[in-house]
Every structure is written in structure tokens, then in C-alpha cells.
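Colleagues,

Please find the record for the two-part complex below.
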Amino acid sequence: MGKAINNNGKYHKKLTIGLFGFGVVGEGLYKALQQTSSLNATIKKVCIKHPGKKRNAPEELFTTDKDELLNDEEINVIVEVINESEPAFEIVSTALLNGKHAVSASKKMIAEHLPKLLELQKQTGKSFLCEAAACASIPVIRNLEEYYDNDLLHSLKAIVNGSTNFILTKMFEESLSFKDALLLAQQLGFAESDPTLDVDGWDAVNKWAILLTHAYGIVEHPDNIVFSGIQNIQSGDALVAKEKHYDIKLVAQAKKLLNGKVAAFVLPQFVKADDHLSFVKNEYNGVVLESSFADKQFFYGKGAGSFPTASAVLSDISALRYNYRYEYKKLYHHIVPELSEDFYVKAYVSFDDWQYIPKEKFEWIEEWHAEAERKYLVGVLPFTELKNNNWWRENNTSLILSPEPVIEDVEIRRLKKKSLELAGI
Amino acid sequence: MGKAINNNGKYHKKLTIGLFGFGVVGEGLYKALQQTSSLNATIKKVCIKHPGKKRNAPEELFTTDKDELLNDEEINVIVEVINESEPAFEIVSTALLNGKHAVSASKKMIAEHLPKLLELQKQTGKSFLCEAAACASIPVIRNLEEYYDNDLLHSLKAIVNGSTNFILTKMFEESLSFKDALLLAQQLGFAESDPTLDVDGWDAVNKWAILLTHAYGIVEHPDNIVFSGIQNIQSGDALVAKEKHYDIKLVAQAKKLLNGKVAAFVLPQFVKADDHLSFVKNEYNGVVLESSFADKQFFYGKGAGSFPTASAVLSDISALRYNYRYEYKKLYHHIVPELSEDFYVKAYVSFDDWQYIPKEKFEWIEEWHAEAERKYLVGVLPFTELKNNNWWRENNTSLILSPEPVIEDVEIRRLKKKSLELAGI
């Protein structure tokens, strides 16, 4: 049992890879493959933009001509880890149309081209794998595909952006201001010099659009999903959270409603101390799945960084040796539920002035506090308010969902009555 | 996108299943498959022991003749969820030799026949999948196979037995006595009428033997792995744990040592409140993996119960449609590390009388407390003491490892010196 025996030469496909991109992830992947000889996968050529740069790999490996990869019949897998959406989409489409499998880490590109990518997979029969695009080293897509066929996924919620989670952890545990926490994140490489993509929630909603397809078969452009980042959260909110023994996290959620439709959004939320997501700190990600069969599952791991991302790409490459592909069972084999707006959410809203808050839109308000500088309330409002209006994220207004925020249509009357009774009305 | 379209007819294998066993898991699987039409997998025949029983499925589905399944050429997958080791092994071997894939949930059988099962897979080229045998709905085997090729897994630790974890949670959080917690577990179906297999750690070490093969390529009979269950834990231990802000869990661990060998054992352990495993309560299981690439990963879910187990079997069946099989890369493509005894462990030991404790075997003792009835000490001892002797689990002696219990050979001198200095010696 001490010798290295090639057990699987018979049925394993040899993978000859064309790699686009040699930044931190690309180089990480290159190094990882060098250490993984048993995989029988080699990078034949790497396509990069700037030929002049010094790189930690033999010069002859590199080219600036994408066709050298895309038209090479020997190359059967294209791996794309570049940072630009449209070129990335071009590369992936061409790869699939040229009979090659494709592996990608580009969440923005994938989220913005979901219908076309699905079409290409169906049309060409080739695999398009993108585990690295959703929470990196956490095998969430693979798990949704393998474990959650059909209607049994009740809900999922996740922290999918390490950058914002790092900032929130620092604001909470070390009482840093938002500004200082962001600066620290940038210094440590957890946030870009332009952090808007992360801080404003774009990265998170892109990932959520991808995961909704695998979780429920829902194919929606990220623009159609209600989201916010952490850009409006204030230190005062963190204080209130602490008083109530909560954390604040940016949580991507999806829940099957009683009417069969799905509520989905990406918003800051108060999270109880014993919630799995409270446990997810700094740049880590976490996913909680609730279903009829497996009950509750929780996955936790690094959602970003060159090695965690490279490990996810590596795992996809590994699966290609037995022709693994996403089946999108919820999309192709079941009636796909619609995204719904017909529900209510309970939320905390902090604001500078009552004039910014459309009080009449709330079903009821459970509590409110007013200081000279800042005020806040906790109330229930129709989700359509968040979908169709912007007051909740303008003028320094900060909205943070309560734990268990979704209230179904059928419950609203009963709960409103109860709330009024409690208030002595 | 609302219609059910069969996208994958072209390359998907139709799976015709012969099922052995129709207890809670077998029936759960049957029901699950009925709801999962897109899987293109049907149970053709079910082999049971007692024909008279009333069952929730058509009578013609059942037979008592195993050859009706094993010799049927139409059946290409055997699923075995019975409760007896030797018959289960017979069934699985015959299935593989007859050119059928096999799926099993029988951890005891698998742990006790590892070399033969590996041999059969190599010899026949057929798949033998057993996700349900290790933490049920947590995809730990699949993850070890897919994400951790080669030498990069530093350590893994897990709570793999829901029964004992339920008992420990009740002892801790509700201050129940061991006896009362066990009774409650039995009433709720989390422990058998003969709970020894769970309580004494046999079930946990069986699962660990299986996971060591996938994690490190180590093939060891469970008898060769040092283990204990929770049978010796006392209420007094729980009190000490609380004082020190620890939990007590039954933890299966494996760690790569500096010398390249692997330390592995299943023992009760003090777990800090912020440890992932502290979060694993009642009948849930959890696995923490530390590696060079993905850094830290944590998986949490239900490790037992008919539906979580059935969901794991279902996931294995699903993978058989593209001929998935375990590659055991660490076993076949790398030098397999040995199990080592050349290290030390720090442990808390509570006992009735000093006569039961071989004090001279300890490298040093850091603290000790003596009451009339019960005494305890915390000290460092060579792991060989646990491997070769029984004093630590006889005569009402209770051993619980400290958090971070493993001390490497090379460190022992330095740490002993430091410990003596701290003690003012």
C-alpha cells in the first residue's frame, strides 16, 4: 500500500487545459495542478493580456492570442479566471461552441448571462462548471445539484461575500468605524481599491442569482433581485444590535412560501448569537440549507482568496474527468417557482429624520426610539416597498431585517391583530 | 421555463435498483425515490427477511430470495440498508462480482472489511459508494474525495455519532444525569435499546476507520484505532468543564504530524465554546477540515435518522448515473502515511483513587484536585499509554482530552521545561 499505483488509467479522460488569466487565482491553480499529478490534467497554454509581466512559470506557456487556446483541438477544457465580464463570456461561449468544457470563477459574468449560458450547455452538451463563482471552497453548487432534487428545499440563507463580512466583524467585535474597518480590509487584501462591488452588495446578489438557479431553477437577472449592501450601516446600528444580543450580517436568503413561490433577497440582517451565520466571521462564508430530507445543513469555509478559489476550480476540473455536468434538475424537471413579492418583512430602520420614512406604508410599527441625531423603528412592511422604492437606502437611512423576517400574506392579519393587542390598542 | 423537459435522456444511465432492507431507511429511500422521478432510477425488487410484516409498498415488490436481485441482469445497482454485518458484506461482494454497483449504509460492515472492499472495487471496476455510512446527510466522503487530493489535509476532527452527542448535550445544557439523558435518547429514537454500540464508541470508530481511508489512504481495522465512548463520563466532569468554559464532546480526530505520520483516535474531549464542534448539538454531526488549500471547512448536518440517511443514499444513487466511483487517490497515488503512536496527549483524568492512576507514566502533571469522593488531574502522557493499557477507562476512571491535545515528540522537552518553570520547579 506504499506504492503509487495508477488505478484508473482505463476510464479516465486526460484533461488538457487552456487557462485564461494568470493573476492570483490563475497562478494558484497552476501551482496546485503541479502538485496534483494524480489528476492527469495539465495546462497546455495560458492566455494573458500583458506579455511583458514577469510570471512564475516558463515563458513558452504564455500567449496573448486567445484562438491558440480556443481553436486547439488538443485542449478539451477551458478554464477562465480573468476579471472582465464580456471577454470572459466570449471565451466561455466560444469554448462550449468549439466542443470544449468550461470552468469559470466569474460570478458577475455568469449572473448577467444566465439564460445564454444555460442555452449553450443544452445546445452543445458540454459542461460548464463554476463552483469557484459561489463561495469558493464551499461546495454549495455541487451540493445543491446532488442533494436537493425537486421541491424539498424549504429555504437557504448565506453569507456569500467575505469582504463585507470582514468589515462587519471588525465593526462589531473591535468596534471599528465602517471607514476604519474598510481600510483594514483593503490593507489585508479583503477588499478592492474600489470596494463598491462588494460593499454595495453587487457581488453578493450576483452569487445569489447563480445559486437561485441551482436551488430552485429560478433564472433571474441580478437586477430583478432586491438587494442592498452594507453601505448604509452605522455604528449606532451596531450598538442597537449589541443591546438586543444580535450580530449584523449581510445575508442572502431564499424561502419557499406557502403559495409555492419563492421570496429572495440580499439584505443586512440582525442575526441571533446562536444562529449558524453568527458563527461566520471575517472573510469566511457560510450557507444554511433547510429541507425536508436532510433537515438542516450548514457549510462553512473560505469564500475568497486565491487558494480557496483555486481549490474550487480544481474540484471542478477533477469532476470533468468523468464528464460531470450540472443537470439543473429544478429547472428542467419540475415546475419552476416564480420569484414573489407577495409577502411582508419585519425590519429595523434607522434614519435621520421622520420625513424620510413613509410611515403609512408600514402594516404596523412595533417600536421606535428617537434621539436628537438618530432615530430608529422596528416595523412590518410589504416587500413591494423595498422592490419599488428607494427611501429605505437613501438619505442616510439604514434598513436591517429582523431575524425570521418573512411574514406570509396569510399570516399578516393575525399577527397585526396580535401586535396591536400587545401595544394595548 | 415552466415545463418539465427531459434534458438528459441521451447520456444518462437508467438505474434499476435491487434494495436489501425495508426498515426505516429502506422505506424512507423508497418514498424518496417515488418523489424523485427526474432521477430515472427505480426499485425493481426489495429483498427482506420476514415476509409476513405489513409494509407500505405493493406486495409484489418484495422477495426473501437474495438471488432474485443479485442474479437479475436487469438490476444494475444494489442498495444495501440492512442491519447485519456479515450478510451485508455477502450481498455487497456478490453484487460487485456480478457486475453491479453497490451502495451501502452499513458502517460496521464497511469498517471491518475495508481491505476486501477496496480489492473488490479494484478487481471489478464497479462503484461502491457509502456516503450514508459516515455522517449521513453530510457529504463528507464526497468532499474528501473531491477536494483533498494529495498531501494537503492537515487535520480533521468530527462529531460522528448523534446518539452520544445528544446525551452529552442533555447532560450539559439541561444538567441531566448520564442515565436520564440516555433514557431520553432512547425514548426519542436516538439510541437503541442496547446502546453499547453508540455509547462505548464502537459506531464512532467504525465511521472513523472509513473516513481515514478517504482522508489519508490509511486502511486500518477499527480495533487498531484508540477509542473510547462516553461510558465513563461523570456529572463531575461536566461541572469541571463548565468551570473552564468548555463543552465535552466525543471527538474523532486525525492529524498529520511533523514526521509525516498520522495521529488518529476517537476520545471524549473538552471543546472550547467558540470551536465549531461546540456548535454541534443533540443528534447533529459536524466535521472540521483543515488544509493548505481550502484552509478551514466545516460541515454540519444530521448524521442519522431515516430521512438524512436516505438522502445520502439518494445522492450516491444519483452519482451512479455518470459512473461516479471513489478513486481513493491518497491510497493509490501517494505514499500512504502510517498511523503513529509517537506523540503525546494532554488530558484531564478524573478518578476515584490514586491507586488506579500510574502517575509515573505522565511526562508531567499540570494540576490536580482532590475531593473525598472524586479526584482529577490534568497532565501529559505518551499516546502509547492509551494504546497499550486500559487503566484510563477502568475502575470508574474518566479521561477527557484537552483542547489541542496533541503534542509532538519534538516539542515535548521544550514544553516540559516550560511547564516546570511555571510550577516554580
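The mean pLDDT of chain B is 90.

Comments are welcome before we finalize the supplementary table.
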